[in-house]
Structures are given as C-alpha cells and as structure tokens.
Amino acid sequence: MTVGKGTVDKGTAGKGAAGKGRTAARVSSTTIAIPARAGMVWSVLTDLESYPDWNPFIRKAEGQRRAGARWRLELTLNGRTFRTVRVQVTGWEPGRCLVWRGGIATPHLITGTHAFRITETRQGVDLVQAETFAGWLAPVLFPWLQARTQARFAEMNAALRDEVARRMAETA
User: What is the pLDDT of residue 77?
Assistant: First the structure.
C-alpha cells in the first residue's frame, strides 16, 4: 500500500467570481493493489448497504447509485467519533471511477472532492482513493486533515481488499 504525500495542484489555482485569488488545492491520497477484476471491486465499493459490515471509515452510506445523486455518509474520524456529511456524486463510471463532492462551498471556505480510481493491471487492479481539499481554509487545515484522511483511507482500502477477497472466496 502506498500513501501519497500532500501535493499542491497549481493547475487549480484561479480567480474567484469576484476577482479574488483562490488557494491552490491540496491532495491527500492512498493506493492499494487488489488481486481482483475491476467489476468485483466496483460492486463492493458501490454496495452501500454493506458498508456497516466491512467499512471502518464510512460506517453508513445512503443514496442512489448514479451521477448527480445526493448521498448521506456517516464517517468515522478516529474509529470512535462519527460525523454525518452530505455529498453529491459528481462522477460515476462503473468499474473505473467514483467521485463525490461536499464541504462548505460558500463563500469558498473548504470543499472536498473524494475520488476512487480503479485501474486494471496484470495482477488485478490498483485502487487510488484521494481527497482534494480546496478553498480558503484548505492551506490552514490541510496538515491536520491529511494525517487523518490518509489513515482512514488506508484502513478502508485494506478493508475493501479483504471484503473483495471474502466475496470472491464465497463464489469460488
């Protein structure tokens, strides 16, 4: 499992509607190899009802499975503390990509764009889970957020890999 370092995406810096400069985005990401087909990883990742059974990071997820849907997620921040967030699914490419966005968009305080990217390899798939933080508070909060998100992402990635293996063993 690889844990990405926080990076600054200079390409997202730009001007706001009022002409004020916006801060560059900060990205926190993790990667894991899963010895399975992309379709199997996708089916577990999008089986929202089963999250309480295997997912240590998102203990509950509700919403329609499609781009544009609004989801309600119950996140564990440290294994004991929970926070409910509402997000909108902005990317839905079965077997390849799931993206949602949430946060405090007005007045550009902080938003998070969460992405899962599935890439097939000879050994199975590489799964990248990443969060891009943007907004005025992103530079200030990023060091604190990065440490926590990477730990939760790594736990979820490993649990996803194990759940995929368990389901494959059941069907073998």
Answer: 74
